[in-house]
Amino acid sequence: MKALFSITAKKLAGAIIATTTAAAARFCQNGGGLRQSPWSTSQLRFARFTGIDVKPGNVIQRKGKTYEVVKANHTTQGRGGAIIQVELRDIDSGNKVNERLRTDEAVEKVFVQDKSYTYLYTDNESGCVVLMEPETYDQIDVPKHMFGEGLPYLTDDMNVSVQFLDGRPTSAKVPQRVTCTVAEAHVHVKGSTAQPQYKKVLLDNGLTVQVPSYILAGEKIIINTTEHYYMSRDFVRLPSAILY
Length: 244
Known about the structure:
Blueprint: H1 2-29, H2 38-45, E1 46-50, E2 59-62, E3 65-76, E4 82-90, E5 96-102, E6 106-110, E7 113-123, E8 128-132, E9 139-143, E10 159-165, E11 168-173, E12 177-184, E13 198-203, E14 208-212, E15 220-224, E16 229-233, H3 240-243
Antiparallel strand pairs: 1-6, 2-3, 2-6, 3-4, 4-5, 7-8, 7-10, 8-9, 10-11, 12-13, 12-15, 13-14, 15-16
GO cellular component, one term: cytosol
Family: Belongs to the elongation factor P family.
Subcellular location: Cytoplasm
């Protein structure tokens, strides 16, 4: 009995080893299984979430097109419940559309790759922004529309972020906080009228922004580029006449 059991066990072990070896060979021939399987690729690129999770900067698939979420506002419509009013930018054409999403509506999010680049210059003839990869010095052209409302904030040697999908750029962003110079600012004349708390000034990039009334022309101020509002003086770069 012991001899019979030993022979049976050896045969069973041999069969298991042979089966495992064959499976491993097939796995290697197929390039490692998960790396080549179609479902693993889609899992890495896409994920489903709901409308309430949509935020500016997300890239989503909708109605057969790929969009970047530019704005997302939560609103309530009485008995209709809450909805998300979104502004979407078609990453292929640059065209913008406005749509409404239910908070529980399924949305397909696309995962993109972020890379850092250095701004070189804007080529107005081609309509592109020329960027440089800081390590390899390779240059790429990115359509101006991909920077959206952040385009005027571009300055020499600024570090910017570019998102890629399947090796092609989908959107580009300037830093959320940048320093701008006040080009023109109205000076309040004492005794004329009550001094307002805020006033509108012209920045060196051509944009206007509301700032505290004490801000003067020539000052360096920090701007939030996402919402386009004044944050503070840039004390590191303030003129000495203002500091003392």
